[in-house]
């Protein structure tokens, strides 16, 4: 199936239930976006979910051990968490500096 919003410079994260969360990026008009959507591989379909609080591109996304998704950086120095069970985002803080097109890794102790 086709995504609801065409995008590039986004992230894609495999959630614990097997769905794929796609966040942010830039659309065909080169506008940064905060929308997010879920891909269900068992149905081959996309559905919109809650939008991030900030428009982001070039950011990181990490699935944490508890199933939440941490999104941080890109064109912004803030971070936020996605809760799959509710589809909601909450701001979690500000990094010491913006990170653009960086990487994030969940360590064994749960830190990123």
Globally, the shape reads globular
Identify low-pLDDT runs. Answer: none
Give the terminus-to-terminus CA distance. 32 Å
The order of strands across the largest sheet is 1-2-3-4
Order of helices and strands: EEEEEEEE
Indicate the mean pLDDT.
96
Count of DSSP H/I helices: 0
**Proportion of helical residues:** under 10%
What features would you describe in this structure?
This protein is mainly β. The protein is built from no helices and eight strands. A hairpin with a 5-residue loop joins strand 1 (11-14) and strand 2. It is globular and about 40 Å long.
Q: In brief, what are we looking at here?
A:
The protein is an all-beta fold. It has strands spanning 11-14, 20-23, 36-40, 45-49, 60-63, 69-72, 78-83, 88-94.
Chart the SSEs and their pairings.
Elements: E1 11-14, E2 20-23, E3 36-40, E4 45-49, E5 60-63, E6 69-72, E7 78-83, E8 88-94
Antiparallel strand pairs: 1-2, 2-3, 3-4, 5-6, 6-7, 7-8
List keywords for this structure.
about 110 residues; four-stranded antiparallel beta sheet; about 35% strand
């Amino acid at each position: 199936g086709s995504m609801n919003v065409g995008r590039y410079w986004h992230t894609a994260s495999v959630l614990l239930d097997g769905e794929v969360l796609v966040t942010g990026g830039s659309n065909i008009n080169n506008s940064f976006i905060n929308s997010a959507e879920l891909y269900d591989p068992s149905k081959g379909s996309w559905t919109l979910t809650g939008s991030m609080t900030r428009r982001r591109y070039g950011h990181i996304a990490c699935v944490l051990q508890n199933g939440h998704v941490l999104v941080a950086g890109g064109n912004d120095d803030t971070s936020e968490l996605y809760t799959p069970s509710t589809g909601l985002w909450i701001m979690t803080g500000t990094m010491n500096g913006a990170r653009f097109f960086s990487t994030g890794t969940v360590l064994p102790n749960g830190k990123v």
